[in-house]
């Protein structure tokens, strides 16, 4: 009998076809030569249906996030790194240390394997640098025209230590509200590459894993009440969610909110308010007033928190309004986002 | 940010506010209408009203192109997209405008219509060139600012004979709407609304110049100050209006002289005149039918007129009976005096024109100012717990 010969996957010129999702040899080849090669770790390697994992003591935290961003490659990242960061951040916002990721891919027939390899390589690099391995996954292929290249769903688990109690309902009157850096970078970076709208900018997406910053903040102040990453809907919408969950109001200072000059300029031009533009590497922290100084110092001591700022206070307000003193000296409501000006940003 | 922060400086704002408070006569009221939605948005977003003394009140006018688009015109666009299978291109903020039967272009898109959001008229023409097998219609809306770009693409489409491209024209004219408000019985004869002057549009005036406003100033004895969209521009304009009122003057003054001239942009005006002609009458949402207030495509460009190509017939559709948009646009009522405001009518589910875009009077009040509506006792207190 002749020895089996498998022609290696033609990543350079090949494209995703329906056989890659049919569960036969082609699927196995794609998994082994593309996914396993990039993500390789001791839990993924056996290629069982489920990964069997050791878990340290503590409460288990689990989060899932689907990524459908368009364009797939954007300044400062791509759908792969975003899929890793997005889920790590969701787990981290519970105060947990993320441990493992699962990844589900929906590929469109005809998608170039070279692009898929780029996405997977970027995802693997992001997972490696965050120290959170992809331990199990799944691949499906849909017919041409029924997807948009590649969609990625990631699920993450992590463990939160005893004594850490974070939640959107925990904000109390008088608490200090922090944001970890400039807002709106991700949304503007995506917008700058949209069809019909391409403009020259040096703005990069802020896509980044926040779990190490979270660990530093919790080490400085275990009493932090709320952590949340202001993704879709931006800072404004996230603060409104917290205000509603906690049954409080908020009072912000417009001048204190950090916005990069390029983002401010792009927003002026496009008629957007940076308060509503998405972020992928920023967090909001709500902390008891006496801890504000320690938290600010912890922010400033971490590379992802250098530009952190105290932007306001939690107030008593039965209507749960988020209000703001404008740079001009007037007041306004900072309301929930209405509609959606920026489809598919994450 | 350079060239922006200078116009939002809190110290200068306080200086201007102090001057307005000092010069405004406490014995009288000053009611000024900012015509343009851009000003309404700036006033609300930056909290300009908080810097004004209580006897100086701003009335939000109808200058929001999305807001004044009547239901019947949106219905035409929806039918084109759903029943005639065209690719319908429009600016993003028109997609949410409520039309008949709870529909909107966005909902039509969900029902299968090919509706595309574009950022310019030129993008719509580009789509037409890229898909020669499909009819592409550009749903053109806006005041004098967006009219020249539409004229340009019509000229280009004719020159290049792009056979599958047409424009559904809804361009409207600022001066006609101001006259309509000034002629309304509440303002003109009943005196229930005292309009003491106008903050004139910024970008519109770069095209039409300041000259068209001279008529109102003379005929209706109303001062007009043309100004930019930055909050300090608006404060400066209010101060200039207060001074005119105090001195009994009714002139057209140009605070926005860094951009606007008396005669405007003659090249743009000539282009618009070449492609468009006046419509006898046009329906404005909230104001009703206003004579000679809109533009239609000239016969020379008939092949590129969607109304002619598809034989469209306009059918007016009334707004909800309880909707007070008409009265709000003329300054007769405030948003909170409408029964629908904040209940059935919100920015998520707008029923009337003023709630549709953030430049509309109701949406601006709802999104930025509704904390002012509650009793003073409920004002939030900041206290360290």
Nearest-integer average pLDDT of chain A: 94
Strand content of chain B: 15-25%
**What order do the SSEs of chain A take from the amino end to the carboxyl end, as H and E?**
HEEEHEHEEEHHEHEHEHEEE
> What sort of overall outline of chain A do the alpha carbons produce when their principal axes are compared?
globular
CATH architectural type of the largest domain in chain A: Alpha-Beta Complex
Low-confidence stretches of chain B: 377-385
Helical segment count of chain A: 8
Please give the number of β-strands of chain B: 13
Strand tally of chain A is: 13
For the record, the CATH class of the largest domain in chain B is: Alpha Beta
Keywords:
heterodimer, A: 346 residues, alpha+beta, 60s Ribosomal Protein L30, Chain: A, Phosphoribosyl-aminoimidazole Synthetase, Chain A, domain 2, 2 domains, seven-stranded mixed beta sheet, four-stranded mixed beta sheet, 8 helices, 13 strands, 28% helix, globular, B: 385 residues, alpha/beta, Rossmann fold, five-stranded parallel beta sheet, four-stranded parallel beta sheet, 15 helices, disordered C terminus
Write the layout of secondary structure elements.
The complex is a heterodimer of chains A (346) and B (385).
Chain A: H1 25-39, E1 59-67, E2 73-74, E3 77-78, H2 79-92, E4 97-108, H3 113-130, E5 134-142, E6 150-160, E7 176-179, H4 185-191, H5 211-220, E8 226-228, H6 234-246, E9 249-253, H7 261-270, E10 284-287, H8 292-300, E11 309-315, E12 322-325, E13 331-333
Parallel strand pairs in A: 4-5, 9-12
Antiparallel strand pairs in A: 1-6, 2-3, 4-6, 7-10, 7-11, 8-10, 9-11, 12-13
Chain B: H1 10-23, E1 30-36, H2 37-45, E2 56-63, H3 71-83, E3 87-91, H4 105-110, E4 114-118, H5 121-130, E5 136-142, H6 147-159, E6 165-171, H7 174-183, H8 185-188, E7 197-200, H9 203-208, H10 214-219, E8 224-226, H11 231-247, E9 252-254, H12 266-275, E10 276-278, E11 281-284, E12 288-291, E13 295-297, H13 306-309, H14 325-329, H15 361-369
Parallel strand pairs in B: 1-2, 1-7, 3-4, 3-5, 5-6, 7-8, 8-9
Antiparallel strand pairs in B: 10-13, 11-12
Helix pairs in contact in B: 1-11, 2-15, 6-12
């Amino acid at each position: 009998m002749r020895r089996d010969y498998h022609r290696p996957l033609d990543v350079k010129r090949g494209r995703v076809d329906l056989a890659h999702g049919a569960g036969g040899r082609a699927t196995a080849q794609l998994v082994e030569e593309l996914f396993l090669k990039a993500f390789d770790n001791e839990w993924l390697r056996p290629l069982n249906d489920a990964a069997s994992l050791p878990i340290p003591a503590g409460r288990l935290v689990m989060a899932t996030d689907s990524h459908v961003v368009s364009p797939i490659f954007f300044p400062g990242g791509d759908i792969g790194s975003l899929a890793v960061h997005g889920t790590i951040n969701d787990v981290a916002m519970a105060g947990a240390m993320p441990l493992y990721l699962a990844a589900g891919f929906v590929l469109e027939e005809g998608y170039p394997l070279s692009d898929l390899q780029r996405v997977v390589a970027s995802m693997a690099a992001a997972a490696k640098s965050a120290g959170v391995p992809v331990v199990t996954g799944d691949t499906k292929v849909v017919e041409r025209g029924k997807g948009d290249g590649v969609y990625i769903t990631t699920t993450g688990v992590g463990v939160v230590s005893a004594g850490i109690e974070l939640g959107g309902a925990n904000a109390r009157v008088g608490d200090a509200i922090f944001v970890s850096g400039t807002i709106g970078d991700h949304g503007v970076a995506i917008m700058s590459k949209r069809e019909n709208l391409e403009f020259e900018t040096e703005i990069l997406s802020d896509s980044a894993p926040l779990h190490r910053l979270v660990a530093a903040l919790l080490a400085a102040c275990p009493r932090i009440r709320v952590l949340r990453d202001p993704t879709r809907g931006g800072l404004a919408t996230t603060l409104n969610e917290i205000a509603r969950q906690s049954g409080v109001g908020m009072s912000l200072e417009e001048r204190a909110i950090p916005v990069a000059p390029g983002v401010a300029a792009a927003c002026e031009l496009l008629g957007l308010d940076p308060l509503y533009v998405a972020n992928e590497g920023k967090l909001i922290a709500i902390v008891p007033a006496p801890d504000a100084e320690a938290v600010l110092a912890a922010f400033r001591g971490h590379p992802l928190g250098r530009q952190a700022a105290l932007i306001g206070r939690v107030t008593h307000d039965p209507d749960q309004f988020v209000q703001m003193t404008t740079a001009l000296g007037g007041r306004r409501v900072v309301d929930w986002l209405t509609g959606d000006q920026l489809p598919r940003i994450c | 940010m350079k060239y922006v922060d200078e116009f939002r400086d809190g110290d200068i704002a306080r200086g201007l506010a102090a001057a307005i408070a000092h010069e405004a006569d406490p014995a009288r009221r000053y009611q000024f209408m900012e015509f343009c939605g851009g000003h309404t948005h700036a006033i609300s977003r930056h909290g300009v009203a908080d810097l004004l003394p209580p006897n100086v009140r701003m009335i939000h006018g109808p200058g929001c192109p999305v807001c004044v688009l009547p239901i019947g015109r949106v219905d035409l666009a929806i039918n084109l997209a759903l029943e005639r299978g065209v690719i319908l291109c429009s600016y993003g903020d028109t997609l949410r405008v409520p039309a008949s039967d709870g529909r909107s272009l966005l909902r039509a898109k969900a029902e299968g219509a090919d509706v595309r959001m574009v950022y310019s008229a030129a993008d719509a023409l580009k789509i037409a060139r890229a898909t020669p097998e499909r009819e592409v219609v550009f749903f053109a809306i806006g005041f004098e600012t967006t009219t020249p770009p539409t004229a340009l693409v019509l000229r280009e489409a004719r020159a290049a004979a792009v056979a599958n491209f047409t424009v559904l024209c809804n361009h409207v004219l600022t001066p006609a709407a101001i006259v309509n408000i000034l002629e309304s019985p509440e303002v003109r004869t009943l005196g229930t609304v005292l309009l003491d002057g106008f903050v004139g549009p910024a970008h519109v005036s770069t095209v039409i110049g300041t000259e068209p406003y001279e008529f109102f100033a003379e005929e209706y004895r109303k001062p007009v100050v043309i100004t930019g969209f930055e909050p300090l521009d608006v404060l400066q304009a209010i101060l200039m209006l207060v001074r005119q009122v105090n001195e009994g003057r009714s002139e057209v003054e140009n605070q926005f002289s860094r951009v606007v001239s008396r005669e405007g942009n003659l090249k743009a005006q000539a282009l618009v005149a070449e492609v468009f002609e006046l419509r006898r009458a046009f329906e404005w949402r909230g104001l009703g039918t206003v004579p000679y207030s809109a533009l239609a495509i000239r016969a020379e460009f008939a092949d590129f007129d969607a109304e002619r190509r598809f034989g469209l017939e306009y059918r007016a559709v009334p707004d909800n009976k309880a909707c007070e948009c008409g009265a709000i646009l003329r300054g007769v009522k405030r948003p909170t005096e409408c029964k629908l405001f904040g209940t059935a009518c919100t920015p998520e589910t707008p029923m009337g024109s003023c709630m549709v875009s953030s430049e509309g009077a109701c949406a601006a009040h709802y999104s930025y100012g509704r904390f002012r509506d509650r009793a003073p006792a409920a004002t939030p207190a900041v206290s360290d717990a």
